[in-house]
User: Which sequence fits this backbone?
């Protein structure tokens, strides 16, 4: 019951506020309204100018937005001093030796085996010899990084490569 009373009080307050807003709006927009705006005073509306400005604006510049008028003033070219020649010292380019291309050994990923201990071992054929290699183990300069079902990730001389499983 308490909640219903609160709802009725809030509804009455809401209707009262909106009624006040509508009344003020009607009062300002009606043609026979003589109420001054809140920012204006009635004294300021009756003020009479008794003195003139002590300066005047000289508007002698062209209209920048006019497309039909021609400019009324003559434009004189500006003479700039000729630029001085500046010679920059250049260093000879350093010739970097081209890195030797890394040639991966012939690798063939045959599959993987899960040991009783839970450790995964990849079966790899490298240059014709078959080897079982675990993650982190090295075979010559080749390091096995990760074993997936369909591929392995290997590192050879700072270069990583993914080898796909051979389906033969």
Assistant:
């Amino acid at each position: 019951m308490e909640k219903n009373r609160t709802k009725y009080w809030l509804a009455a307050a809401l209707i009262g506020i909106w009624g006040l807003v509508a009344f003020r709006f009607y009062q300002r927009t009606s043609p026979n309204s003589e109420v001054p705006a809140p920012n204006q005073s009635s004294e300021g509306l009756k003020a009479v100018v008794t003195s003139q400005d002590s300066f005047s604006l000289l508007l002698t510049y062209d209209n920048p937005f006019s497309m039909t008028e021609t400019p009324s003033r003559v434009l004189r070219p500006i003479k700039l001093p000729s630029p001085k020649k500046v010679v920059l010292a250049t260093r000879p380019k350093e010739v970097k030796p081209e890195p030797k291309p890394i040639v991966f050994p012939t690798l063939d990923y045959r599959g993987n085996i899960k040991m009783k201990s839970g450790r995964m071992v990849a079966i790899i054929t490298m240059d014709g010899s078959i080897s079982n290699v675990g993650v982190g183990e090295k075979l010559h300069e080749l390091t096995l990084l990760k074993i997936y079902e369909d591929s392995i990730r290997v590192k050879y001389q700072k270069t990583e490569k993914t080898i796909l499983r051979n389906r033969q």
